[in-house]
């Protein structure tokens, strides 16, 4: 309706927009309405949406989170990033907040937006512990807001290596849980299986499982000792005890692993360091911190995932390369975690550096952001899914393709290999540096780990410098093999202590200090080194030779010692408090075989070839006794993949141990029958000097990895040593492998390979490679998944082509482990056996038979075979050939002339599987019945017919021809040859400019150019007031362009112009005339209009008036017309109400929205241009002028009676502006829901469909708007025919009178307008006569009762609705029989019957509704008859015409016709005669 115009007053709009909101707020306050707030949950978990309005316009929406921020756990000093993607229309504004403080620091908190991905980001620079908090993200627009939250956990970095020592020494404050004191808890733990420990602790509320397991072992030992005292040996309990300790270690390891997963987002780690098995008493927080420091390397992405664009139904592949190997990373899709399944395929390369995510069969719903999360780093990319370009081909299944990223050309394997080589080089450099430093003995700073076991205190130096601990940690992680630090024993007992990768301390000649049998924990406060105290310089120290053997630590942390050590270890000589002249005796001793079995006990073999000289210890020995030196030989140490420490025999190297001077020490060692080594506590009396010897020797650069092999195929195991000269041996399940037909063992430098040529099921097992005491192992799992023969698979994938009605057969052989499930699919729908589908399944092949194929059966055929080892699929195509469908019309005429007809059509929608070869053309002349064959043309859908007659009409038939047959016919519409088609009329010309001697005209080409192109134009002009058109250009001077300058004009004359086009057929129609234009120089634009005002408004229109602007020559010329523009308050663009100029100074703007606010302005215009707009000072509200509500129907009833069950309908007509709020009340309370209210512009109706007596009351309507309010009330009485009164009794106290007394009607209490009527029947008469009416009491005295007659009385109850059934009285009096009249003159006695007035029936209290009648009555006697006078508030009423007063035989009554407030008061009746005076009073109350 309106034309858009440019906005020129933006500041005013903003000011007025606030006024709009002020008006709306004020209107809501007056009308009592409130804003709507609706809370709802989003489809995205954890997002809450608050909706501000009830009805959201179409196309708009509240904000929502498509992806919410992921919780972040990060190291101190890093950059934390939260990312969200929000949706909503209008576009929401995103803000961030935190729970514990502001985020106003721009240097710390930076909010960003990425337009390419649509992500809003919050970056926290250099995070610290102060930023650990809960963060909330808000997205808001004018319709609502959405909120979601996330958390940031900051792991504080340890700056100084000594902090690690302090952290290790820190003791955990152990508080007893309530469950620990419960005897039922310990009884349940002692009798339960180890798998139920965690559940029992949870039930009793015990948190520290590690501490409970320690105490549990003590309690089990106490129980075993008690049983031993009774003569029982608890063998089972000892075995159970050791097993439970192993499981306890595993449980705590898993707890730490779970803690790491929760804190870092990683699911699995390679080369975990079990901190809890070291025997350290650490809190969970400390364990998590240490685990993060030791285990988490800075994993990053070498190649990140990149944006993908896929066509619908294609596969999409994301891939990334890591800097460090991880077995698994987390893939996120649109805010949720993705799992491996039918929709998503998650794969990892063998070296665990390349991770891939394959999204199968993409649809438009899969579009979004996908992320790869590795530890604390992540990368994201978009997946854009585009719809198929050819909808017609959507029915036919295409071969599925895989969409790759634009950077997929990068060789991921090459990048991974380079990264692997780079990591190995870094590891080798670190290893070489550590080895060189230790060989040179450059020990700069030591770290001591002190473990208090049964043998005493062990001190170890684990680094050569400040960073040595970190280097050793990196070395342990990158090489993938378990490293150990050798620690010299400070006791001088010849044993050597080692710290393996699991944190356990092992001894070469004793037991493992990390073993559960060592109950003592590491204590804080111990010194880093033992201080050397003053010693006698003359004391002798003995030298000892020692050769270290191989030690291996298995997966259970057990220490195993090999037998037959061939070298002797010279032990350290110590002289404590002895005479230097005394001789020391030497003794040779050989170490026997020692091993620790699964129970943690140390066993010594019996085949030791050398004897061990034990150290003598005792209390009170002679200081002159000789101290013996002993030689001991230790085996070489090797660590296998299970972490076991084993001691091999015959070590060929000797090591010179450090000399130490020690005081007398006590040391006892005994062996029990089971071979368990028991050591007595030894006291150290002198200073000890520690040394660290690290000789990694030959180690593994790259260990073995588990392999999943397929039966009858080749499997390969590869590992790499640090030396090329070392030989090794391969083992399977503990048995050595010798090369044969199935096994090939090769060595290429440092790389050793084991190749299984043809895998069988018996080849599954654990394989181990040993070299120079080192070992690594891996599992080979031989599986037998379903497989196809490549030749048969290639033949199966070839499309099968059949004709319609024929059968199609698909057959494929396979091999695999039984049982096998076989399913056939057509277009992803499973095929089940029916009349047209048959499937045959056997152990080696499957066959599919499709009978009587139709064209619609064309598509993809897939077979899916699955067993317990995997599944495989094969896809083929079925093509069913049929004749084509008819060509598609309608035909399009390309040329129609007197000599030819050329037309085109579209090919068939379905060619039947074969290309169109030819088209068969037939022609029929309109009016004839025969068709003429024009022959066949090549498969081009167009034809040019030159054999036509001018003016004739023709129809054509077209058939498509393929190798499978001919299609149905397609018939064209009639086509005429040689038709004269003249061009249509152009649009009216437009005046570009006008001058005194020239008028410039332009026009546009006609929409209908006829049968040929336009050759030119002819222009004509006409003076205003003339009927004659004159040609501007001659016929032979056609105007080629679509503009022309008319110079044949007279200044001051007004002209109009018209144009016509000419083509090959001739001259076309003329256009309509242009607007009149004066041939004169351009004018000046007019000035602003004045006195702009609104004269009338309504809900749908408003009327404007203004004054014409002044004409000022040279400054502003006269206005030729006006434009009116309007703008809603919420919009910023002006819209023009009139498309053509109006010449009047008033205008009615229609099509407004009720109660909306509008800005209005008027622009004057002439030939010189438009004036500046004149705008109203204030906005205009689309509503009539305010009118106070008033009721227009003056005949409305103020009282109405309705029978119960009937409907109650009250209609009220009113006038009000603006539209008022209407409220109906009953007795000043809003009406209930059973009352129906219908409102319109000028009326309101209240309807009660079925009324009840409880609906009686006063109904009021309140009509209210901004101008005022008005109310009207109507009393509604819902009643029914009354029930009859109760039994009637007669009282004859006064002769000649009868008092009728009756029980009240049951309706009297519910109807205050109920009254009674008394009728009488005399025995001498046959009709009933009414003796009293409108009685509001329950008795009435009837006079003039004649003796000797029988009387019957009836009492009726009456109300506004009707009369009840009568209640009859007993018979009054007895009719006397007629006897003979005998006159007897009695003796006359004078009797005085005079008496003073008395009231025998007094007045009763009355409460009457306003506007109703009130009836008062009483009975008085007296002789002579008294004079009756009525009073109200002591004022006589006998002469007041408003009161109807009567006195019948002593029954005095007064009727008040219309009761009002003025009638309230005390009423008194006075009866007076010559003998006295009597009064009776009552009170009348009027109810509103």
What does the average pLDDT come to? 75
Largest sheet: 7 strands, antiparallel
Uncertain ranges: 1-25, 27-36, 161-177, 230-297, 392-397, 442-693
Straight-line N-to-C gap: 58 Å
What radius of gyration results from the CA coordinates? 57 Å
Number of strands: 108
- Computed structural class: mainly beta
Q: Count helical runs.
A: 10
Describe this structure in words.
It is built from ten helices and 108 strands. The strands form 27 sheets. Strands 1, 77, 78, 80, 81, 82 and 83 form a seven-stranded antiparallel sheet that branches. Strands 2, 3, 5, 7, 10 and 11 form a six-stranded mixed sheet that branches. Helix 8 (412-440) packs across helix 9 (468-479). It is extended, with a radius of gyration of 57 Å. Residues 1-25, 27-36, 161-177, 230-297, 392-397 and 442-693 have low confidence and may be disordered.
Q: What attributes characterize this protein structure?
A:
single chain; 1488 residues; mainly beta; seven-stranded antiparallel β-sheet; six-stranded mixed β-sheet; 10 helices; 108 strands; extended
Compile the SSE list and pairings.
Layout (H helix, E strand, L loop, with lengths): L2 E3 L4 H22 L6 E4 L6 E4 L9 E7 L4 E4 L4 E10 L3 E6 L10 E6 L4 E6 L8 E9 L2 E12 L5 H9 L13 H9 L5 H8 L4 H21 L5 H30 L19 H12 L5 E3 L4 E4 L3 E8 L7 E4 L2 E2 L6 E5 L5 E6 L8 E7 L2 E10 L15 E2 L8 H29 L10 E3 L2 E3 L9 H12 L5 E4 L7 E4 L5 E3 L37 E3 L4 E2 L5 E2 L25 E3 L5 E3 L5 E3 L24 E5 L3 E3 L5 E3 L7 E2 L12 E3 L5 E3 L12 E2 L6 E3 L4 E4 L4 E7 L7 E4 L2 E2 L6 E6 L2 E6 L8 E7 L2 E10 L3 E2 L1 H8 L2 E4 L4 E8 L5 E6 L2 E2 L6 E5 L3 E6 L8 E9 L2 E12 L6 E9 L4 E6 L11 E8 L6 E7 L3 E4 L7 E10 L2 E2 L3 E2 L3 E2 L13 E5 L4 E4 L11 E10 L6 E2 ...
Parallel strand pairs: 5-11, 13-20, 14-21, 27-33, 30-33, 41-48, 50-57, 85-92, 101-108
Antiparallel strand pairs: 1-78, 2-3, 3-11, 4-6, 6-9, 7-10, 8-9, 10-11, 12-14, 14-18, 15-16, 15-19, 17-18, 19-20, 22-23, 24-25, 24-39, 25-26, 27-36, 28-29, 31-32, 34-35, 37-38, 40-42, 42-46, 43-44, 43-47, 45-46, 47-48, 49-51, 51-55, 52-53, 52-56, 54-55, 56-57, 58-59, 59-62, 60-61, 60-63, 63-64, ...
Helix pairs in contact: 5-6, 6-7, 8-9
């Amino acid at each position: 309706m309106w034309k858009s115009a440019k906005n020129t007053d933006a500041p005013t709009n903003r000011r007025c927009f606030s006024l709009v909101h002020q008006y709306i707020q004020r209107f809501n306050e007056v009308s009592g309405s409130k804003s709507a707030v609706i809370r709802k949950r989003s489809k995205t978990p954890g997002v809450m949406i608050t909706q501000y309005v009830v009805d959201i316009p179409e196309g708009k929406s509240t904000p929502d989170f498509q992806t919410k921020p992921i919780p972040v756990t990060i190291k101190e000093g890093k950059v934390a990033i939260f990312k969200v993607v929000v949706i909503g229309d209008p576009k929401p504004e995103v803000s961030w907040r935190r729970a514990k403080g502001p985020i106003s620091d721009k240097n710390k908190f930076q909010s960003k937006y990425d337009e390419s991905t649509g992500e809003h980001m919050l970056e926290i620079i250099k995070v610290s512990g102060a930023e650990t908090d809960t963060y909330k993200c808000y997205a808001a627009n004018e319709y609502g807001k959405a909120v979601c939250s996330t958390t940031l956990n900051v792991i504080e970095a340890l700056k100084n290596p000594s902090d690690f020592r302090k952290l290790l020494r820190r003791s955990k404050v152990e508080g007893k849980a309530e469950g620990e004191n419960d005897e039922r808890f310990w009884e349940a733990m002692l009798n339960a299986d180890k798998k139920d420990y965690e559940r029992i602790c949870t039930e009793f509320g015990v948190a520290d499982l590690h501490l409970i397991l320690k105490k549990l072992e003590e309690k089990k030992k106490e129980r075993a000792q008690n049983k031993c005292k009774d003569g029982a040996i608890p063998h089972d309990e000892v075995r159970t005890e050791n097993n439970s300790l192993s499981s306890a270690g595993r449980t705590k390891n898993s707890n730490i692993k779970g803690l790491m997963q929760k804190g870092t987002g990683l699911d699995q780690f390679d080369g975990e360091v079990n901190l809890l098995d070291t025997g350290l008493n650490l809190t969970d927080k400390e364990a998590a911190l240490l685990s993060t420091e030791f285990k988490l390397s800075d994993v990053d992405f070498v190649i990140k995932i990149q944006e993908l664009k896929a066509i619908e139904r294609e596969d999409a592949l994301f891939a990334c390369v890591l800097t460090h190997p991880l077995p698994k990373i987390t893939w996120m899709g649109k805010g949720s975690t993705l799992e491996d399944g039918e929709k998503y395929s998650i794969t990892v390369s063998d070296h665990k550096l390349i991770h891939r995510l394959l999204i199968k069969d993409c649809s438009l719903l899969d579009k979004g952001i996908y992320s790869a999360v590795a530890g604390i780093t992540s990368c994201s990319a978009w997946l854009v899914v585009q719809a198929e370009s050819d909808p017609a081909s959507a029915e036919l299944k295409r071969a599925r393709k895989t969409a790759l990223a634009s950077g997929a050309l990068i060789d991921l394997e090459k990048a991974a290999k380079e990264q692997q080589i780079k990591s190995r080089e870094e590891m080798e450099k670190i290893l070489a540096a550590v080895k060189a430093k230790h060989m040179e003995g450059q020990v700069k700073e030591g770290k001591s780990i002190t473990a208090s076991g049964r043998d005493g205190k062990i001190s170890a130096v684990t680094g050569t410098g400040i960073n040595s601990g970190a280097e050793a940690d990196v070395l342990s992680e990158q090489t993938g093999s378990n490293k150990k630090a050798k620690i010299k024993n400070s006791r001088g007992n010849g044993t050597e202590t080692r710290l393996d990768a699991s944190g356990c301390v092992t001894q070469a000649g004793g037991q493992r200090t990390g073993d559960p049998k060592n109950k003592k924990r590491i204590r804080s406060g111990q010194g880093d080194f033992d201080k050397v105290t003053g010693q006698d310089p003359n004391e002798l120290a003995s030298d000892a030779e020692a050769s270290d053997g191989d030690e291996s630590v298995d997966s259970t942390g057990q220490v195993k010692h090999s037998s037959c050590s061939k070298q002797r270890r010279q032990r350290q000589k110590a002289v404590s408090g002895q005479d230097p002249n005394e001789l020391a005796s030497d003794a040779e001793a050989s170490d026997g075989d020692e091993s620790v079995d699964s129970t943690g006990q140390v066993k010594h073999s019996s085949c030791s070839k050398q004897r061990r000289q034990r150290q003598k210890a005792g209390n009170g020995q002679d200081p002159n006794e000789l101290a013996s030196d002993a030689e001991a030989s230790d085996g070489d140490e090797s660590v296998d993949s299970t972490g076991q420490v084993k001691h091999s025999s015959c070590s060929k190297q000797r090591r010179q141990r450090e000399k130490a001077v020690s005081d007398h020490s006590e040391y006892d060692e005994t062996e029990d029958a089971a071979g368990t080594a028991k050591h007595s506590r030894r006291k150290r009396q002198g200073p000890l000097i520690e040394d660290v010897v690290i000789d990694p020797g030959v180690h593994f650069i790259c260990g073995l990895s588990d392999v999943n092999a397929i039966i009858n195929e080749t499997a390969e195991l590869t590992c790499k040593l640090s030396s090329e000269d070392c030989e090794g041996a391969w083992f399977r399940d503990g048995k050595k492998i010798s090369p044969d037909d199935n096994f090939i063992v090769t060595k290429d430098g440092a790389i050793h390979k084991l190749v299984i040529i043809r895998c069988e099921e018996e080849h599954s097992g654990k394989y181990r490679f040993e070299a120079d005491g080192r070992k690594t192992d891996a599992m080979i799992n031989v599986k037998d998944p379903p497989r196809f023969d490549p030749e048969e698979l290639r033949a199966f994938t070839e499309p099968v082509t059949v004709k319609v009605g024929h059968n199609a057969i698909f057959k494929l052989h396979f091999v695999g482990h039984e049982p096998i499930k076989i399913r056939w699919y057509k277009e992803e729908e499973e095929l089940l056996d029916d009349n047209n589908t048959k499937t045959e399944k056997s152990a080696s092949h499957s066959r599919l038979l499709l009978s009587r194929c139709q064209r619609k059966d064309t598509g993809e055929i897939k077979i899916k075979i699955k067993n317990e080892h995997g599944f495989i699929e094969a896809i083929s195509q079925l093509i069913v050939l049929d004749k084509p469908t008819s060509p598609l019309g309608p035909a399009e005429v390309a040329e129609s002339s007197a000599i030819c007809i050329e037309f085109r059509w579209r090919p068939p929608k379905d060619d039947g599987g074969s290309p169109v070869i030819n088209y068969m053309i037939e022609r029929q002349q309109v009016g004839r019945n025969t068709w003429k064959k024009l022959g066949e043309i090549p498969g081009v859908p167009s034809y040019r017919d030159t054999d036509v007659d001018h003016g004739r009409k023709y129809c054509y038939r077209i058939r498509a021809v393929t190798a499978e047959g001919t299609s149905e016919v397609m018939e064209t519409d009639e086509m005429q040859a040689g038709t004269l088609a003249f061009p249509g009329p152009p649009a009216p010309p437009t005046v570009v400019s006008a001058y005194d001697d020239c008028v410039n005209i332009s026009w546009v080409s006609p929409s209908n150019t006829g049968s040929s192109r336009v050759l030119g134009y002819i222009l004509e002009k006409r003076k205003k007031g003339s009927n004659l058109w004159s040609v501007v250009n001659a016929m032979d001077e056609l105007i080629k362009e679509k503009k022309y300058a008319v110079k044949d004009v007279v200044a001051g004359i007004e002209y109009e112009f018209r144009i016509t086009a000419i083509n090959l057929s001739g001259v076309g129609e003329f256009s309509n005339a242009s607007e009149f234009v004066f041939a004169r120089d351009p004018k000046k634009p007019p000035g602003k209009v004045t006195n702009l005002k609104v004269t009338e408004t309504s809900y749908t229109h408003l009327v404007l008036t203004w004054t014409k602007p002044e004409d000022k020559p040279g400054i502003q010329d006269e206005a030729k017309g006006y434009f009116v523009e309007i703008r809603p308050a919420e919009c910023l663009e002006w819209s023009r109400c009139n498309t053509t100029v109006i010449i009047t100074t008033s205008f009615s703007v229609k099509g407004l929205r009720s109660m909306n606010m509008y800005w209005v302005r008027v622009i004057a215009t002439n030939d010189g241009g438009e004036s500046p707009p004149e705008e109203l000072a204030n906005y205009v509200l689309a509503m009539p002028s305010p009118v106070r509500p008033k009721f227009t129907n003056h005949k409305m009833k103020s009282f109405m009676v309705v029978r119960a069950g009937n409907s109650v309908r009250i209609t009220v007509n009113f006038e009000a502006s603006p539209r008022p709020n209407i409220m109906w009340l009953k007795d000043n309370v809003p009406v209930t829901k059973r009352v129906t209210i219908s409102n319109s512009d000028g009326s309101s109706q209240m309807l009660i469909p079925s009324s009840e007596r409880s609906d009686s009351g006063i109904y009021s309507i309140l009509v209210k708007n901004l101008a005022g309010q008005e109310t009207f009330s109507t009393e509604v009485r819902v009643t029914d025919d009354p029930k009859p009164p109760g039994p009637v009794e007669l009282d004859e106290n006064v002769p000649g009178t009868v008092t009728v007394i009756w029980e009240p009607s049951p309706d009297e209490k519910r109807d205050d307008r109920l009254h009674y009527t008394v009728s009488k029947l005399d025995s001498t008469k046959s009709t009933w006569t009414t003796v009293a009416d409108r009685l509001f009491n329950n008795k009435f005295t009837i006079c003039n009762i004649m003796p000797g007659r029988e009387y019957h009385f009836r009492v009726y109850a009456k109300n506004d609705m009707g009369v009840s059934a009568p209640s009859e009285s007993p018979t009054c009096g007895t009719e006397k029989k007629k006897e003979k009249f005998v006159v007897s003159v009695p003796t006359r006695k004078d009797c005085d019957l005079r008496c003073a007035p008395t009231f025998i029936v007094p007045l009763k209290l009355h409460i009457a509704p306003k506007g109703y009648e009130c009836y008062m009555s009483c009975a008085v006697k007296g002789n002579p008859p008294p004079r009756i006078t009525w009073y109200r508030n002591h004022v006589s009423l006998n002469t007041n015409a408003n009161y109807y007063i009567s006195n019948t035989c002593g029954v005095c009554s007064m009727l008040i016709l219309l009761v009002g407030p003025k009638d309230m008061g005390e009423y008194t009746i006075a009866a007076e005669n010559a003998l006295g005076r009597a009064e009776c009073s009552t009170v009348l109350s009027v109810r509103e």
